[in-house]
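Recap from last week: sequence in, structure out.
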Amino acid sequence: MTDLDSLAAEIAGADTVVALTGAGISAPSGVPTFRGEDGVWGHFDEGQFTYGRFQRDPAGFWRDRLELYEAMFGDGIEPNPGHEALADLSADGHLEAVLTQNTDGLHAEAAGRLPEGDRPELLELHGNAHRVRCEDCGRRKANDPIVARVRDGDVPPRCSCGGVFKPDVVLFGERLPGGALQRARALARESDVFLAIGSSLVVQPAAALPRQAAGTDATLAIVNLETTPYDTDASVLLRADVTDVLPRLRDAVADRA
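Predicted structure tokens:
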């Protein structure tokens, strides 16, 4: 059996399968990665996108945020076969949850074509860049109308309550939402198979989730083109393009169901 075949057999027989995804699953959709060759932080100063800077200088933050948002989310970005394969695994009853470090919303879009009961539990650990949240009242709104206001010079954009809107993402210097992180850790511990997909596994605390899963005897599979700090913990290592290997994995699981 190949590694993919053995992993498919593990998934087909598992009670709880959980996936953690990083930038590598969205790069084929045209979303640039933050680090590595031609990464976003090679073109922007990440120090300008801290929560402290947002608090001190919300107008300047939003001007820079507009440029960053437009660089990251151009036209034609949509779910790729990797996102769709995970959604299909959920629809077939083989994937409990997707924990994602990405803020692009592509997992939700891929799952949106499924009946609600077939969608995986989705935890966007670092938030969603297509929403904003008022710092005062907590109201959430779609990002695009707020970006249009910023583009027209309305900075910082304010809520009707007078509070400043902030991108609904975790900025440098902010903690992950406690409830989401607690739930992610519980899912990692409960998993029989844990898939770490397209992540360098260096950004904490999300990067520790695979080791938590392996620590409770889950089968840990890492699907990533580059090495990660957790490769020695993995039962299966697949150095492959996610848009190729995830559809093949989905099909192999279906053959065993």
